[in-house]
Amino acid sequence: MAMYPGSAPRYRTVVERIVEELANEIRMGVLKPGDKLPSERKLCGRFGASRNSVREALRILSSRRMIQIQMGRGSFVTDFSAPETNSLLPFWEQHHEVPFLSLLEVRLFIEPQAAALAASRIDKASLAQLERTLRQLEENIDKDSLGGRIFADIAFHDCLIRAADNPLLVSIYRGIEPMLFEIRRMGLWSKERSAKVLKAHGEIYHAVATGDSPAAGRAMWDHILEFAKDMEVSFDSRMLGLLPHSSIEKAEQ
Fold it and tell me: Which residues form a coiled coil (predicted)?
């Protein structure tokens, strides 16, 4: 079952296909936090793959923090606990070599432009998928499921990246995806913060749905910076010049 509509993806290897199909099922809530994945034998049968290919795919998903592999028990969708602290920056600097502001800059380079491109390129099926991620986040706020909220947030941003219809952009985003889990865990741990994220996603969705590329880019820009402010992260004012509003507007003319 294809979890993302639109043109069929072209996978280079069977490992890549296994990774993306299972990752999509996790993002969209088909496999929920805490769920046990099918056994290696069943995955081999489903994908027509060797055991080595399945194990490599599971290793990649584990490195992305989407699953946890437990020796003798199997593989489980990550079920996130509440963060130990509400202060992101000290925690980040203690556990990551990449400076947080470097990650923030990369997101500001990539995601507003991706949202702008999605507004001009998204198809009806992908737009419906994007709308479903809003309902998914809202449902998990009501159920008070932190893991569900995290994967709903991942699904929203992933759907936008894919809707930009640029395979290189998807590859670049995959490179930073593992680092975004801790950020999302801290940003979505409370219902209040999650409600702010849902509101921001709604504004981005509306801009994309109406084909307003400049508004989509600005809404994503504001969403990322608002999160940074909520996490009490101060950012270099020079970042304010990163968003290419004029470039987006020229592209629409």
Answer: 120-147
Residue 10's pLDDT is: 56
Supply 169's token pair: 């952009």
Residue located via tokens 């929920």 = 32
Model pLDDT, residue 239: 59
CA distance 186 to 189: 6
Residue tagged 């402010």 (tokens): 229
Stretches where the chain sits below pLDDT 50 are: 1-8, 85, 244-253
Q: Which two tokens stand for residue 21?
A: 């199909």
End-to-end distance of the chain based on CA atoms, in angstroms?
38
What domains can be seen in the chain, in order of their start residue? Answer: 14-77 (1.10.10.10), 88-241 (1.20.120.530)
Q: Element (H or E) spanning 75, and its range?
A: strand 74-77
Encoded tokens for 235: 């950012």
* Cα–Cα distance measured from residue 201 to residue 197, given in angstroms and rounded to the nearest whole number: 6
How many other CB atoms are found less than 10 A from the CB of residue 141?
Answer: 21
Q: Could you read off the pLDDT of 54-113 as tens digits, one per residue? A: 999 999 999 888 899 998 899 999 887 655 545 555 556 666 777 778 888 889 889 999
The answer to whether the CB of 4 falls within 8 A of the CB of 162 is yes
Residues 6+ apart with CB under 8 A from 107: 176, 224
Please report, to the nearest 10 degrees, the dihedral formed by the alpha carbons of residues 143, 145, 151, 152 taken in order.
20
Residue 68's beta-bridge partner residues? Answer: 76
Going by C-alpha positions, the residue among 190, 76, 209 that lies closest to residue 134 is 209
Residue 166 tokens read as: 């640029």
Closest CA to 69 of 81, 84, 54: 54
